[in-house]
Every structure is written in structure tokens, then in C-alpha cells.
Design brief:
alpha/beta, Rossmann fold, 5-stranded parallel sheet, two-stranded parallel sheet, 45% helix
Length: 233
């Protein structure tokens, strides 16, 4: 992976399923646009590029074969190919034009397939190999915000969905939580773990917006907590 070399900022919203990352990314987009920032919100996997629709089909096992029939590496290779096209056709062109890119998931989502010690390093290494072989730069987000909460809380939120995909199962949530915390500990310079157990508006005002303050020269900023940012600790 490489540091973002472009003028546009790149911020990722991550965490276990049910953590509220999608809601926070949508709030962030509206907030930035209201403050005059050029920004787009993208999502991984991208249904509109190579392999995206197949991934969603495999997630819900809509055909004879699903992700449940594959190894973690086989599953993630589908994401790697989709991510390479997405990076080339969507993310990099926007960043190069000075457009800020907010992404609902990024390469950090390999954490969804971490099951034991060593899996995280192994999947990240395989991903790097695929990108390098294809000659596609794997751009690291300027910030990766990881929304953390208890698996039980995430499961309660997921019950509201009409159906759950392969990764949204009760037995996987704790493993996913621990994998994201491991990733954040491994890359502290650009990862922030925030408490996502509170109301979505509270999470946004106390954490998401504070990180946006640090990343963008937004107009009308109001210093809170005596002028100290929540995420500067």
C-alpha cells in the first residue's frame, strides 16, 4: 500500500457489520457538502465494476455456490479484483481532481475474513501481491475510522435487516471486532477507533465530525471541549 499522493483526501469508514459506518459516512458526506467541500461517497464492493455483482450473489448464495463454500483467500481474491478496478476507475481519478473521497469500506475489510493469529498479515500480503502484479497502486486512506461496539449490540441492529449475508452471522462478529482492533493497533498513524455504541447523532458529533475537523478546512468550525479535539488524544 502507499500513502495518498493526491490533493483530494481519502477517508474510510470501517467496522463490523451493524456498527453504523454506512450511516456515519452518509452524514459525513452531507456535512462536507454543506460546508463547501467537493466530496463523493463510494462503497466497496462496487457493484458497477468488474466482479461486484458476483460478490453480492456469492454473499447471499443466490446460486449453487456461495462464499460459504470457499476458503478465506478464495473469497478475498474476488474482493481484490473488484477493488483494483474500483481504485483505478473511481477512487484515483477523483482524488487526482482534488475531490475528497469518502468510502464505505476499503482494503481494511479483509478483517471480515480473519479467523486466527496470522490471518491479517497473510491476507494483507496476498492483497499487496495482487495489486503489485497488476500494476495498480493500493492507495492508503488518509484516515480509517473504525466504529467499534459490542457484538451483541451489532447483532441487535442486524436483526432489523430482511436477510443477512455470509459475514453478518452471530459467530463471526467477535472475530471481526478483534481483527479490526488488531488492524488499528498495527497501523496507529492513520487509524482511529471510536465508540459506536451510542446514538448515531452523538457518534457523529463527538467523533466523526471531530475527525473531519482535523482533515478539512471546513467553514464555521466551533471548538468544543475547550478547543481540544476528541480524536487528538
Amino acid at each position: 500500500m502507499q500513502k495518498n499522493p493526491y490533493s483530494g483526501k481519502y477517508i474510510a469508514f470501517e467496522g463490523m457489520d451493524g456498527c453504523g459506518k454506512s450511516t456515519q459516512s452518509e452524514k459525513a458526506l452531507r456535512y462536507m457538502q454543506a460546508n463547501g467541500e467537493k466530496a463523493i461517497l463510494v462503497k466497496e464492493p462496487n457493484k458497477q465494476v468488474f466482479g461486484g455483482k458476483l460478490i453480492y450473489s456469492l454473499l447471499f448464495k443466490e446460486g449453487p455456490i456461495g462464499f460459504s463454500d470457499m476458503s478465506s483467500v478464495m473469497r478475498q481474491i474476488h474482493y481484490f479484483w473488484n477493488r483494483m478496478i474500483h481504485m483505478t476507475e473511481v477512487v484515483i481519478p477523483a482524488l487526482a481532481k482534488g475531490i475528497n473521497v469518502l468510502t464505505d469500506r476499503c482494503y481494511t475489510s479483509v478483517c471480515l475474513d480473519v479467523h486466527q493469529t496470522g490471518d491479517l498479515e497473510r491476507l494483507l500480503a496476498i492483497q499487496d501481491y495482487y495489486f503489485q502484479t497488476a500494476g495498480v497502486p493500493l492507495i492508503r486512506p488518509d484516515w480509517i475510522i473504525i466504529y467499534d461496539l459490542k457484538p451483541e449490540t451489532a447483532l441487535e441492529r442486524l436483526k432489523k435487516k430482511s436477510r443477512r449475508d455470509f459475514f453478518e452471522q452471530p459467530g463471526k462478529l467477535l472475530q471481526t471486532k478483534m481483527a479490526y482492533l488488531e488492524f488499528a493497533e498495527k497501523f496507529p498513524d492513520f487509524c482511529r477507533v471510536v465508540d459506536a455504541s451510542q446514538d448515531e447523532d452523538v457518534v457523529f458529533s463527538q467523533f466523526t465530525r471531530e475527525l473531519l475537523y482535523q482533515s478539512f478546512p471546513l467553514t464555521g468550525r466551533k471548538k468544543e471541549s475547550g478547543g481540544k479535539d476528541e480524536l487528538s488524544r
